[in-house]
């Protein structure tokens, strides 16, 4: 065939990008301090539940032990109460289509489930029972911590996990965010009394937030929450992580993984918080650079050079600091050239303006996919839980869309200059050191990192 | 039928028509959110690949994103994403699909893009070489450079089945991928990507009459071609245990997978639904039989899961397929211990059946999961398309919650009897990677 030529007259034109409204959120704060957000939404007869409890390590000194305990607690909280054992709790939930997952990260503990719409009251009842009466039976806790330790060992054998952990450690040092996965030996030391104490001190309603989205009546749902969780009276403060440092270590840290057929390249640095004026501009700069398929990074190292399958960049928010992160898993033999192209594309972003078409495409994509990601019960519930957990109102979603709609080329250029310049980023490579070191040394000083578990 | 199942069936009526070129079209309007999903399912998957061309269905899927007669390279992505939409494609055992989900005003743009590549994809030497490199990196990320990369989906079928169609590596060998030619690709396209071999499904915020007109406008001019017959992929049922041991030098802990042949998902759907429910009962959540026995009671497993269909979707496959149980366990626990416990739990259901309470709870959980999938415009559009292609009935997607709610204890018991320890395929993964 002859080379394809795009005839734009064939493609139906688009209207102006739209600011999507946010469904009305009914907000209440209970007497015990729990922030409750209820959003009725048309669609399937389900409700999505998210309970977010701030759970950061209070200090760097205690972070390793806290992280280990949190990793066991998130499974062990489901092991039983005075009146129900683990199986009984799971069966009660299952009868309403629910299965409670509890997960921890450096900022919070998150209880999440979907449930059939007629199960709200009983599921809230079980949730309340766990919050106020999880018993952490010693024998079952022992089983749980052994499983968690084994799962961590498996996770630590994944190259993507090794790379993420190395980047966090290099960026944050001894700050709690420097710990991507707990030490299995510390996990094996966790005992039931420590979990009971941690639960008592930290699983508290003040500072926590409950989000319900779906097929519900807001008044009845709020009343059901009040009724069920009124007795959750544990007192204490929510603990947020201390401000995150950015060590910005220069050069390339190389974590040796002998025999690896790919290298995992990761770069990370600071990004604006959700309330910073330049967040919208940086998010759009991120898109143009590597945030979606239509980006410079994908066009260069995937579609032109075939170095990698899924290169990408993203902006991630944690309570004590946001990040701009670049990721690419590339064939071992092109590790040096791939990092060179990544640096080249970063430099081009930092120093030269993006085009009108690039900005327009990125803007429309971000606005459109924000609408898509909140077009399900589950998507909206998770989005609102993250916002409310960051002390932001649901209307932030509208304000942020307005900000995205008005970002200028100059603002994108300024944000890229500040956040995408290579010296602002920390670089880590996981790969076969014997094969990739010479090429990486041609690009900059290489230091050998410890990695984890390998 | 439960109330929710009835509502789901009613809320998503399906409209269908066929174009002169043979393209089957299914429309599922639902205007509750301003989002539309467009998907094209071609009736060709990994099982259709000829010997010497392993991985070709998937490689060809990549080529379909390289542009088409009126769409230069990279422009497919830009036209969808600059409309505020997302896109992707995926290769399955029995079909290959492509989709866009975007704000409703982008509907015609997506139809133009799908029609343009259905007519004339940009199959060139340069694009082919580039995408062979990209696919090799995809295989390195997902299989070669990580522990448990081929476990069990690439390794278990080799133990469980006999025919080339069912046993070969659907990701492809590097030798086969690298020797692929432009001629192979144009032949593959000509044979399998005929409009009559495809289903176009559109769901979400659409007007039926207007969409009918747009589909006719963009797809009506794609020339019809002969459609190849669907090759039978069924096999005789196994009569013995087959076992294989593989070594994984990157894995820190061992694992084992069992695969049992299950009834024909299409020809024996009622019997098959009992198997689907059984898989849930065995492994979904803390209340399930295997989680309780292996993880909590005996503490011989780190994690377990059971599912029907190679990729875990029981309704997107034809015969032959498996119920797979996979268990990750500590090195101190023997494979035999795990197998014995799994067989005992299956035998308990085969012998005693299941109580009404447990059955009802599992059905409630399945119903919630199906509803959750249907809450997403894309999720239900893909389910409808797969039901039309595999089962010849798009409506089945909306009826599944109700159908599963009528499965009886006897059906689950019968399904458990099908999981005969004497006909299981067993894949043992030995971890030779050492420990931290």
Structure description:
The complex is a heterodimer of chains A (454) and B (436). Chain A has 454 residues and is α+β, with helices and mostly antiparallel strands. Chain A folds into 2 domains: 26-229, Metalloenzyme, LuxS/M16 peptidase-like (Cytochrome Bc1 Complex, Chain A, domain 1, 2-Layer Sandwich); 252-449, Metalloenzyme, LuxS/M16 peptidase-like (Cytochrome Bc1 Complex, Chain A, domain 1). Helix content of chain A is 44%, strand content 18%. Chain A has helices at 63-76, 86-94, 120-133, 138-155, 159-172, 184-188, 192-202, 218-229, 279-291, 296-304, 335-351, 356-373, 377-389, 396-406, 409-419, 433-441, and strands at residues 26-29, 35-40, 46-54, 101-104, 108-116, 209-214, 252-256, 262-271, 312-318, 321-331, 426-431, 446-449. In chain A, the strands form 2 sheets. In chain A, strands 1-2-6-3-5-4 form a 6-stranded mixed beta sheet, sandwiched between helices. In chain A, strands 9-10-8-11-7-12 form a 6-stranded mixed beta sheet, sandwiched between helices. In chain A, helix 10 runs antiparallel to helix 11 (335-351). The model of chain A has no long low-confidence stretch (mean pLDDT 95). By secondary structure, chain B is of the alpha+beta class. Chain B folds into 2 domains: 12-219, 2-Layer Sandwich (Cytochrome Bc1 Complex, Chain A, domain 1); 242-431, Cytochrome Bc1 Complex, Chain A, domain 1 (2-Layer Sandwich). Helix content of chain B is 44%, strand content 17%. Chain B has helices at 3-11, 56-63, 75-81, 107-119, 125-144, 156-160, 164-167, 174-178, 182-192, 208-219, 269-283, 289-297, 335-352, 356-375, 377-391, 395-405, 409-418, and strands at 15-18, 24-29, 35-42, 86-91, 96-103, 198-204, 242-248, 255-261, 303-308, 322-328, 425-431. Chain B has a 6-stranded mixed beta sheet, sandwiched between helices. A 5-stranded mixed beta sheet of chain B has the order 7-11-8-10-9. In chain B, strand 4 and strand 5 form a beta hairpin. In chain B, helix 2 (56-63) crosses helix 5 (125-144), helix 12 (289-297) packs antiparallel against helix 13 (335-352) and helix 15 packs across helix 16 (395-405). The longest helix of chain B is centred in the first third of the chain and has 20 residues, at 125-144. The N and C termini of chain B lie far apart (52 Å). Mean pLDDT of chain B is 95; it is low at 1-6. Chains A and B meet through helix 2, strand 5, helix 4, helix 10 and strand 10 of A and helix 1, helix 3, strand 5, helix 4 and helix 5 of B.
């Amino acid at each position: 065939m002859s080379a394809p030529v795009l005839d734009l007259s064939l493609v139906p034109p688009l209207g102006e990008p739209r600011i999507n409204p946010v469904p009305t959120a009914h907000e209440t704060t209970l007497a015990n301090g729990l922030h409750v957000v209820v959003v009725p939404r048309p669609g399937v007869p389900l409700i999505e539940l998210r309970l977010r409890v701030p759970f950061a390590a209070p200090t760097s000194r205690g972070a390793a032990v806290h992280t280990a305990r949190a990793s066991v607690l998130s499974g062990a909280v489901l092991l039983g109460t005075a009146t129900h054992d683990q199986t009984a709790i799971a069966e009660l939930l299952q009868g309403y289509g629910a299965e409670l997952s509890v997960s921890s990260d450096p900022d919070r503990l998150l209880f999440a489930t979907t449930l059939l719409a007629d199960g709200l009251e009983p599921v809230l009842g079980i949730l309340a029972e766990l919050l106020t009466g999880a018993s952490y039976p010693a024998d079952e806790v022992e089983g749980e911590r052994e499983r968690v330790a084994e799962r961590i060992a498996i996770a630590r054998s994944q190259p993507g996990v090794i790379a993420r952990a190395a980047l966090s450690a290099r960026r944050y040092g001894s700050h709690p965010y420097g710990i991507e996965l707990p030490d299995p030996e510390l996990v094996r030391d966790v005992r039931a009394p420590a979990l009971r104490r941690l639960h008592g001190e930290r699983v508290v309603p003040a500072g926590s937030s409950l989000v319900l989205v779906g097929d519900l009546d807001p008044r009845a749902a709020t009343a059901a929450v009040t009724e069920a969780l009124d007795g959750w009276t544990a007192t204490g403060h929510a603990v947020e992580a201390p401000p995150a440092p950015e060590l910005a270590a220069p050069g390339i840290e190389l974590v040796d993984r002998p025999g690896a057929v790919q290298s995992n390249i990761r770069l990370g640095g600071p990004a604006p918080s959700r309330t910073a004026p330049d967040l919208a501009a940086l998010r759009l700069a991120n898109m143009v650079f590597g945030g979606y398929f239509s980006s410079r990074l994908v066009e260069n190292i995937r579609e032109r050079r075939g170095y990698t399958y899924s290169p990408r960049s993203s902006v991630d928010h944690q309570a004590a600091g946001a990040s701009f992160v670049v990721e690419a898993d590339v064939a071992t033999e092109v590790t040096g050239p791939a990092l060179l192209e990544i640096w080249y594309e970063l430099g081009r972003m930092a120093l030269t303006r993006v085009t009108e078409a690039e900005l327009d495409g990125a803007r429309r994509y971000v606005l459109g996919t924000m609408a898509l990601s909140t077009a399900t019960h589950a998507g909206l519930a998770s989005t609102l839980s993250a916002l409310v957990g960051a002390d932001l109102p649901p209307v932030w979603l509208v304000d942020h869309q307005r900000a995205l709609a008005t970002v200028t080329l100059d603002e994108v250029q300024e944000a890229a200059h500040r956040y995408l310049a290579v010296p602002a980023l920390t670089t880590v490579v996981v790969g076969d050191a014997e094969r990739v070191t010479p090429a990486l040394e041609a690009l900059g000083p290489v230091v050998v990192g410890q990695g984890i578990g390998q | 039928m439960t109330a929710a199942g009835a509502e789901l069936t009613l809320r998503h009526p399906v409209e269908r028509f066929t174009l002169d070129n043979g393209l089957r079209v299914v429309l599922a309007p639902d205007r509750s959110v301003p989002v539309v999903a467009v998907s094209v399912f071609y009736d060709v998957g990994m099982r259709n690949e000829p010997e010497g061309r392993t991985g070709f269905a998937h490689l060809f899927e990549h080529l379909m994103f390289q542009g088409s007669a009126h769409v230069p390279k990279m422009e497919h992505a830009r036209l969808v994403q600059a409309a505020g939409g997302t896109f992707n494609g995926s290769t399955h055992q029995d079909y290959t699909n492509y989709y866009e989900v975007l704000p409703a005003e982008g509907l015609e743009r997506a139809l133009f893009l799908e029609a343009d590549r259905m007519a004339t994809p940009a199959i060139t030497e340069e694009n082919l070489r580039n995408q062979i490199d990209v696919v090799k990196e995809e295989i390195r990320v997902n299989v070669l450079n990580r522990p448990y990369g081929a476990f069990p989906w690439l390794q278990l079928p080799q133990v469980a089945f006999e025919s080339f169609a069912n046993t070969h590596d659907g990701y492809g060998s590097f030798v086969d991928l690298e020797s692929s030619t432009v001629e192979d690709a144009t032949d593959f396209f000509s044979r399998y990507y005929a409009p009559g071999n495809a289903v176009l499904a559109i769901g979400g915020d659409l007007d039926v009459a207007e969409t009918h007109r747009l589909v006719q406008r963009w797809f009506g001019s794609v020339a019809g071609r002969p459609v190849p017959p669907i090759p039978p992929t069924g096999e005789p049922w196994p009569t013995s245990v087959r076992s294989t041991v593989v070594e994984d030098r990157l894995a820190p802990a061992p694992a084992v997978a069992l695969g049992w042949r299950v009834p024909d998902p299409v020809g024996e759907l009622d019997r098959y639904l009992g198997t689907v429910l059984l898989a849930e009962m065995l492994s979904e959540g803390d209340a399930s039989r295997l989680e309780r026995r292996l993880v909590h009671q005996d503490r011989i497993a780190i994690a377990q899961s059971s599912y029907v269909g190679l990729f875990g979707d029981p309704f997107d496959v034809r015969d032959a397929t498996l119920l797979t149980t996979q268990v990750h366990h500590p090195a101190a626990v023997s494979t035999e211990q795990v197998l014995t416990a799994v067989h005992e739990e299956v035998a308990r259901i085969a012998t005693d059946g299941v109580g009404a309470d447990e059955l009802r709870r599992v059905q409630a959980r399945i119903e919630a999961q199906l509803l959750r999938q249907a809450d997403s415009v894309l999720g239900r559009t893909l389910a409808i398309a797969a039901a039309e292609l595999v089962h010849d009935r798009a409506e089945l997607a909306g009826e599944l919650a109700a159908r599963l709610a009528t499965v009886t204890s006897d059906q689950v018991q019968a399904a458990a009897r099908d999981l005969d320890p004497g006909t299981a395929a067993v894949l043992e993964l030995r971890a030779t990677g050492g420990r931290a």
